[in-house]
Amino acid sequence: MTSVCATGQHDHHDVYAQQCPCRGLLELIANKWTALAVGALAAGPQRFGALQRQLEGVSPKVLTQTLRRLEDANLISRTVYPAVPLHVEYELTEVGWSLTVPLKALRQWVEEHVDEARV
Amino acid sequence: MTSVCATGQHDHHDVYAQQCPCRGLLELIANKWTALAVGALAAGPQRFGALQRQLEGVSPKVLTQTLRRLEDANLISRTVYPAVPLHVEYELTEVGWSLTVPLKALRQWVEEHVDEARV
DNA sequence: CGGTATCCCGTGCGATACTG
DNA sequence: CAGTATCGCACGGGATACCG
Hints:
The structure is a homodimer.
Chain A: H1 22-29, H2 34-41, E1 46-47, H3 48-54, H4 60-72, E2 76-81, E3 87-92, H5 94-113
Antiparallel strand pairs in A: 1-3, 2-3
Chain A binds a DNA duplex through residues 31-33, 47-49, 52, 57-65, 80, 83-88.
């Protein structure tokens, strides 16, 4: 069994439907900036402004949406340091950090097959 | 360096922008059915109708779009057997097959962290 | 059987302006 | 500094009907 969704418990009657456990993750990292934000945070905790500069072209609204979704998914944490001016740090959680491993595998696949695959 | 996009050649000046080589792949598998179609085809060559039944809920138009994109990316091949009724087979290419490896890593991550991460 | 054509809708994304 | 508010558009996706 090598499919994305099937488990060892399943057989050829598998349905790759809405119930697939991959769906949630795929829909999360599917959007434009999420995986890139995780990649940026893999270098260490970052402030909102720093993330916005690294993810070139992202608007503050969209960056906020992206970070909120990651926070809701428990992949990053948001820490506010009450000060003037405001200081907010985003950081990968432990489980968020673990996600960088398969994500990095994906990146390596791209590097290795960028010529064969027209992605 | 553990970020999604940075390579060993890069340093802290990396920009996770539109130029990131991951972007193409992420935008490809980002949509609703692509990764699932790859997963289905990992079980072996499939006909259009069989894919449509496995990817429960997909409309013929969207399935066609999905398969065309995968074909354009050189990840699957489309073979027409001229007969009545028509017989069309979709099959993973070699590079398409190689993609199932990191995709499977992603699935395993989901299974292992489904409780910690609310994806 | 394996699609295309057509219509429609939700939402992800972007630009800009403004605020605690 | 770190967002929110508002507007608008493009596009992915869905339903249905039809075609070679």
